[in-house]
From TrEMBL:
UniProt xrefs under InterPro entries: EgtD, EgtD_Actinobacteria, EgtD_Methyltrsf_superfamily, MeTrfase_dom, MeTrfase_EgtD-like, SAM-dependent_MTases_sf
Organism annotation: Nocardioides jiangsuensis
EC number, as in UniProt: 2.1.1.44
UniProt-listed GO biological process terms: methylation
Enzyme class, UniProt record, top EC level: transferase
Name this polypeptide is given: Histidine N-alpha-methyltransferase
UniProt pathway annotation: Amino-acid biosynthesis; ergothioneine biosynthesis
Lineage: Bacteria, Bacillati, Actinomycetota, Actinomycetes, Propionibacteriales
């Protein structure tokens, strides 16, 4: 078995500076917000894995169905030598792609990139053990920042699955897609997962499950701040809110203060006051339509080669050519 390699671009020092910056700009201004990437410490990554198994959270299953149906076709269309997976998490669905690309005979390298070092190490070890002969080159990094240093032989297939692109604001999305296009050669590939617009009840239930796992996932960001920045948020005094924004066509997750609250974040010298009922926005998860995805890809310099949805039309995978 080849020894897997892991490059750490997001050093603990870099991550902690980025966190402090995000907390200052997000909580030091009104309305308050925090970027979703700080959910994913070891516990947050585990909670997310648990979310993907909830009956209400359909995107993971819908995307897996598409991959099961289309992976062979995708391998033939792309002939990819390297699979680069951005925001890979546990890399569980990735196996469907690895299997198809290996069966096709072109694949020699897998490059997973994730902000969570713990999740990445587990994934890298598991994949390296199960795919002897495959070069596994993990990158601990932020997909909005560390795209310039992606290894892998051409043609590469960059997979950005799960609908994570929906966590970016429209202008961040445009920058991200243009950045991916920039690191690719003409003829290389992007596989993009997007959750689709559907009835609001289904959407809200997916982000406000009966078992309360998503609530714990949301609250986890406060635990991260308490641990990493010495903050003193009373986690139990917040409730989880998931709301459909029909104008922007995105789900918003928020944390609502159930009483007037003061909190200190000593590491950034910040003290804040929250009114009763005041909310901190912790995530947007945008939902898409085909025309919008195609236009955003085009704008970034990609051509849509294939648009695949699950049987129920809940989720889409776009295969785009640089
Ligand atoms: C991992 C970003 C795809 O937006 O659906 C799940 C994260 N947030 N439940 C999503 C998430 C709440 C998820 N992504």
């Amino acid at each position: 078995m080849n020894q897997p390699v892991i490059d750490v671009h997001l050093t603990p020092d870099h991550a902690s500076r980025a966190l402090r910056q995000d907390v200052l700009s997000g909580l030091g201004t009104q309305p308050k917000s925090l970027p979703p990437k700080w959910f994913y410490d070891a516990r947050g990554s585990e909670l997310f894995e648990e979310i993907t198994r909830l009956p209400e959270y359909y995107p993971t299953r819908a995307e897996r169905e598409i991959l099961q149906t289309r992976a062979g076709e995708l391998a033939r269309r792309t002939g990819a030598r390297a699979l680069v997976e951005l925001g890979s998490g546990s890399s569980e669905k990735t196996r469907l792609l690895l299997d198809a690309l290996r069966a096709h005979g072109t694949l020699d390298e897998f490059v997973p990139l994730d902000v969570s070092e713990s999740a990445l190490r587990e994934a890298v070890d598991a994949i390296a053990a199960d795919y002897p002969g495959l070069r596994v080159h993990g990158v601990v990094g932020d997909f909005t920042e560390h795209l310039g240093r992606l290894p892998g032989g051409s043609p590469r297939l960059v997979a950005f699955l799960g609908g994570t692109i929906g966590n970016l604001l429209p202008e961040e999305r445009a920058r991200f897609l243009a950045g991916v296009r920039e690191v690719l050669q003409p003829g290389e590939w992007l596989l993009l997962g997007t959750d689709l617009v559907k009835d609001p009840e289904t959407l809200v239930r997916a982000y406000d499950d009966a078992a309360g796992v998503t609530a714990q996932f949301n609250l986890n960001v406060l635990r991260v701040l308490n641990r990493e920045l010495g903050a003193d948020f009373d986690v139990d005094a917040f409730t989880h809110v998931a709301r459909w924004d029909a104008e922007h066509e995105w789900i918003e997750m928020r944390l609502r203060a159930t009483r007037v609250m003061r909190a200190a974040v000593p590491e950034v010298d910040l003290r804040l006051r929250l009114e009763e009922g005041e909310e901190i926005r912790t995530e947007i998860s945008a939902k898409f339509r085909r025309e919008g995805v195609e236009a955003e890809l085009k704008e970034a310099g990609f051509d849509l080669d294939a648009w695949w949805t699950d049987e129920q039309g809940r989720f889409a995978l776009s295969l785009a050519r640089a």
